[in-house]
Amino acid sequence: MIDSGFKPDNVAIVSTLSACAQTGDLKKGKAIHDYTKRNRLFIDSYLATGLVDFYAKCGFIDTAMEIFSLCSDKTLFTWNAMITGLAMHGNGELTVDYFSRMVSSGIKPDGVSFISVLVGCSHSGLVDEAKKLFDQMGSLYDVDREMKHYGCMADLLGRAGLIEEAAEMIEQMPKDGGNREKLLAWSGLLGGCRIHGNIEVAEKAAERVKALSPEDGGVCKVMVEMYANAERWEDVVKCREVMERDEKVKKNAGFSKVLS
Q1: What domain count does the chain have?
Q2: Is residue 171, in this structure, part of any structural domain at all?
Q3: Does residue 120 contact residue 87 with C-beta atoms inside 8 Å?
């Protein structure tokens, strides 16, 4: 476009930056940023958001923060890009700090804002802060809780070793929500149970995962390991029998397809 003599507007620039961010093309994205500097293009909130998102996703969080600080007309999208970037890089305390700054500036958070700040809290073990924010979503900010918000909280609680609370959080997920989010949540909790040695909740999580994804053979492997560590040998034998039976069913199904 530029080589042909056309001057791209901010919409075209941000679209290209977004593509560079998705592919991790740092060289091309920086070249676009340099173009805006050379031509002294006005960095409005739209372009600033694109630049913040690009640099954050490419790992240059300090550069993203610098551009963010220079933007004088920050919108919700600009704030979300910065908060998401901080959360992505595990800067939990800064994520919460920027979330608070956004609210103080008069901008109301949305569902994306809460997903990002909860992820940041999860990566930094900020359990109490996350619980407070989760409770305030509807009461203070009038933001509906969605499947991903429950999933973020379950992940946070599981990482912190609060296995029972994590299971309760997943059980509270909307019944009409997608099974994918529930599967991810229960699978993640099963991993947490494995780390913390909570067999009781692991059995519940394994049951839920198998119901949502019957072909998932990894569930039995995890349970075999946990039962073996607890020296529950009868349960080890039962799990292995289930694994063998499932394997036979798969082989028979495959044979039937060949015949048909």
Answers
A1: 1
A2: no
A3: yes
Q: Domain of 246? A: 146-155+179-252
- 174 domain residue, yes or no: no
pLDDT in tens, 230-254: 999 999 999 999 888 877 645 444 4
State the Cα–Cα distance between residues 113 and 48, nearest whole angstrom.
17
- CB-count burial class (<10 Å; 0-12, 13-18, 19+) for 247: exposed
Residue type at 80 in one-letter notation: N
pTM as predicted: 0.85
Please choose, from the candidates 174, 169, 175, 172, the residue with its C-alpha nearest in 3D space to the C-alpha of residue 188. 169
Domain-located, residue 167 = no
Please choose, from the candidates 24, 5, 2, the residue with its C-alpha nearest in 3D space to the C-alpha of residue 13. 2
The answer as to whether 206 is a domain residue is: yes
Dihedral sign for Cα 104, 110, 114, 117, please.
Answer: negative
Give the separation between CA 118 and CA 129, rounded to whole angstroms.
Answer: 9
